[in-house]
Each structure stands twice: as C-alpha cells, then as structure tokens.
Amino acid sequence: MRLMLTLSLSAASLILLIGGSVELADASGFCLFPDLRQRDEVLTRLRGQRDDFEPRLAAIIDEVAAGRSSLRHAAEAIERCAAAHHPTFLEHLDVIEKGDGIHAKIASNLLRNFKRPSENGASAIDAQRLEQLTREFSALFGLQTAAP
Asked: The whole model's pTM is what?
C-alpha cells in the first residue's frame, strides 16, 4: 500500500516536472516541439476561417430553402464567399463531389444536403421546393452531372 502511494506520488511529481519544463521552455522562447506548434497555428487559422464562413453559408442556404434564391445564384454566392473566407471548403467539395465545374459540385452538395434529414431542423425544405431545386439542377447542368 505504501509502495503504491509512493509510486503514484513519484509519477505525479515527474509529470508535473516535465510539464513545468515544457512551459518554462515555451516562456523563454525555446520551442521543444516546433512542428506541433506550426500545425496548431495552421489548424487554428483554418478553424477561424471555418467559423467565419459558416454563418455566411447558413444565410445562403436559408435563402435557397425559403425560395428567395435560385440554385445558380446560391452556387455562385457560395463560391465567392468560400474563396474569400474559407478556400479549403472549395478544395474539399472538389474532392468529394462529382461533376463538371465547381458550380455543379456546389449545387450538387446543396441538393444532397437538402435531401438528407436535418439533425437540428436548420434549413429544412418541403418536398415541392426540393423538386423545384432538382429540376433547376437538371436544367443547369443537364446530363453532365447526375442529380444527387
């Protein structure tokens, strides 16, 4: 029992000593893990871009769902907004969506997400609006891209 307590306290002291050494090195300007620091900075920047982009994207999606914006206009607006605020979003869509051109890929992604049941009820659309958007998608992109 006494041995377990001694080992536990020794391990805790060692952890605190190592943690304190890392903090002391950081405070003095010496970085023990420069790759991790750089990766953290990149991820922090990307998270900031995503956080800045999400409300703008949600507003565009809500306009489409409410019928105040066409699929073409939404795809163009999303492309402009993403290029300015979150370029990684366009890179991601280019990889995951099928289609010719970024507008077709954005429109396809919008339709696919409208067809999927919403977990939180945001941007829900009725069947009639979904049918209108599907027809618009087919008219815009024809047979070059199958509707999702």
From this structure: 0.69
